[in-house]
Amino acid sequence: MSWFVRPAGAGDTYDFDGATFTVKATGEDTEGRVSVMEQAAPVGLVVAPHTHDGEDEMFHVLAGRVGGRCGDDEFTAHPGGFIFLPRDVEHSLWVLGDEPVRMLTICGPAKFDRLVRDQGRRRG
């Protein structure tokens, strides 16, 4: 594994499950340890309840407000907020208010980035 720098705006971009993901680091880049994607989610987006098998999922909210559920608990996150959703626990997310959401999506070990690249529609 070697180091790298991706400039602002760089990375392959995919439309996946109602959101847009720009891949910043893949599992291949990090020997499977982690993946990082910048996610843009439109007003009204609701991500249905689902579980990541053996993969933790984290979000750093850059803009907008996010609501969600992890297990039986609900949460809200604002710009600058950080969300940790542990592996094997059902969770869901939704965009709150009338502003789109931008956030970093971080997963480890890296699995979700492969799903986005395999099932998403690549832009450009």
Structure characterization notes:
- The protein has 124 residues and is mainly β.
- It is 6% helix and 50% strand.
- The chain is built from one helix and eleven strands.
- The chain has one helix spanning 112-119, and strands at 13-16, 19-25, 35-41, 46-50, 56-63, 65-70, 73-77, 82-85, 91-96, 101-108, 121-122.
- The strands form two sheets. It has a seven-stranded antiparallel β-sheet with strand order 8-5-10-3-2-1-11, covered by helices on one side. The protein has a four-stranded antiparallel β-sheet with strand order 4-9-6-7, with no helix packed on it.
- The model has no long low-confidence stretch (mean pLDDT 96).
Summarize the structure.
This protein is 6% helix and 50% strand.
Topology:
Blueprint: E1 13-16, E2 19-25, E3 35-41, E4 46-50, E5 56-63, E6 65-70, E7 73-77, E8 82-85, E9 91-96, E10 101-108, H1 112-119, E11 121-122
Antiparallel strand pairs: 1-2, 1-11, 2-3, 3-10, 4-9, 5-8, 5-10, 6-7, 6-9
CA-atom Rg in angstroms: 14 Å
Amount of helix: under 10%
What's the N-to-C terminus distance? 27 Å
Strand percentage lies at over 45%
Residue stretches low in confidence (pLDDT < 50, at least 5 long) are none
Q: What is the ordering of alpha helices and beta strands?
A: EEEEEEEEEEHE
Number of helices: 1
Shape: globular
User: Count the strands?
Assistant: 11
Largest sheet: spatial strand order: 8-5-10-3-2-1-11
Largest sheet: 7 strands, antiparallel
Average pLDDT over all residues: 96
| Strand-pairing-aware structural class | mainly beta
